[in-house]
Amino acid sequence: MVGIYFQINDWILSVDENKLYRQDREVSVEPRLINLLHFLAEHAGEVFCRDELIQYVWDGAIVTDQVVTQSIFELRKLLKDGREDSICYVVTVPKRGYKLVADVITLDATQFPYGKKSETTYHAEHETSPPESAPPPQDIAFPAGPLTRAVCQMSKSKKEKVKTNKLNYRRLNALNVLWISALVIVMGVFTFKQSEVRITRAIDTHLIEFKYQDDFSDALSFELADGFTQKLMSDIAQVTDYRVLLQKAAFTSGIVPGKSVIVRVKDNGGNSFLEVEYRNNASEKVLFSRQYSLTSQHLSSVLYQASFDLMRVLNVPDAKQKALALNVGMPIDPKALELFIQANHYLNVSDVKQFKHGIDLLEEILQIEAENTYVQSELLIAYHVQKALDSDIELARSRVQDLSDGLENQIVTMSGPIQPRIYEALALHETIQGDLKSAQHHLNEAFALRHSVMSYVIKGKHAELNGNLDAASEAYSEAFYIDTSVETYLLCENLVFPSNMKAIDYSMYRSVHPSVVRML
């Protein structure tokens, strides 16, 4: 067998056969995808932009960028083969193009494990054995009939031969016409399909995706990066009309966030730095990037400055005053503030054990700053959310009641701005206790200061208690709109009391359970 073969991770590519092999799988592939994979395999690790791929793979044919993008998408899906693991084959290099990152080995025909046994090339119908030696010519004995009989038979044989040749020629012409017609039809359909406008994704300019770098050398850097990300995401959601989305949410709706905020914690010569980068995904340009020195003494100023800088680049009015207001009540002690940022990471996950660690961190902060009402409100909410995440957990009722009583007493004597989180904590606790009148009062106070996920979830629960499922659906949808995440869905479903999300808000239910089939 003569051919071109490549081993690409666990796949084997047979270029001549237009096939991919893996274990017991044999997949026939379109030639355009085979040509694309063949080219990338020959240049594994090299980055090629769309124009270069069009030039080398499509031989400079007139095709759109969408054709290249669609081919890359189909190739990734083909190589992944329905597997849930994180094997990467073709990756996108931002602003540069695509490259094959798999391990590639060139094979020859002897190394190709799926080759057929060599078939004999001997066929009886094609046998060209030399003719037996003809007997020496003998005198032909003509029949007694006239000589014209032999001449007529020879003429008839020639006419039959000519007739057969003409018939074969006509058949060949008809076959050629058929093939040419089919080719013209295929080219016409292909050209028409190329000219169709197919929208595969749309950019939502009012959606900001927050990301944090997750390849850290130590757990502390990871927790700080996520904690900073959660804080910045919460700040932007409070002071702007933007929706926010954390990258960990695995939603694939075809909607691309219009903006991205990337948070990294870097180590440079023993010094840690927080890097915040803001990019516009529509223009693929980095509009803001800054590093902040990350030390325990400067955490408070870094929190404020990063929030202020991000608000300023997003054109938030009165950004300075709003950034200051959002930091009111934060722990003052450097160690307590560092623990609070770490707790931000653990209190925004749905894993029960990690969430419990976040509660322990808040309790540790209150040992340092016992009268911090902002931390107390976060802890009160955290205890109730923990119960919602795992109904088997026994609620620390005495501790929860102490926190609630302490907040009630301190809120009366507090002067200056009050964090809306305190009102939300009291409204949640009073709703669970059945004191709906006080809960509604504190919920109104919270809404007067900001619209948050927690406020809308509590509002939805109140609507359910009043039997107004339409209002509950709207409130839960608003919460999910502010923060599109599984954690938000779980709050709507389980906080205070279990809610039937399939009956109340079916669209949200389907977004979290996409495999559900609704029977009509």
TrEMBL record:
<protein>
    <submittedName>
        <fullName>Transcriptional regulator CadC</fullName>
    </submittedName>
</protein>
<feature type="transmembrane region" description="Helical">
    <location>
        <begin position="172"/>
        <end position="192"/>
    </location>
</feature>
<feature type="DNA-binding region" description="OmpR/PhoB-type">
    <location>
        <begin position="3"/>
        <end position="102"/>
    </location>
</feature>
<dbReference type="GO" id="GO:0000160">
    <property type="term" value="P:phosphorelay signal transduction system"/>
</dbReference>
<feature type="region of interest" description="Disordered">
    <location>
        <begin position="121"/>
        <end position="140"/>
    </location>
</feature>
<keyword id="KW-0238">DNA-binding</keyword>
<feature type="domain" description="OmpR/PhoB-type">
    <location>
        <begin position="3"/>
        <end position="102"/>
    </location>
</feature>
<keyword id="KW-0472">Membrane</keyword>
<dbReference type="GO" id="GO:0006355">
    <property type="term" value="P:regulation of DNA-templated transcription"/>
</dbReference>
<dbReference type="InterPro" id="IPR036388">
    <property type="entry name" value="WH-like_DNA-bd_sf"/>
</dbReference>
<keyword id="KW-0812">Transmembrane</keyword>
<dbReference type="Pfam" id="PF00486">
    <property type="entry name" value="Trans_reg_C"/>
</dbReference>
<dbReference type="GO" id="GO:0003677">
    <property type="term" value="F:DNA binding"/>
</dbReference>
<dbReference type="InterPro" id="IPR011990">
    <property type="entry name" value="TPR-like_helical_dom_sf"/>
</dbReference>
<dbReference type="InterPro" id="IPR001867">
    <property type="entry name" value="OmpR/PhoB-type_DNA-bd"/>
</dbReference>
<dbReference type="InterPro" id="IPR016032">
    <property type="entry name" value="Sig_transdc_resp-reg_C-effctor"/>
</dbReference>
<keyword id="KW-1133">Transmembrane helix</keyword>
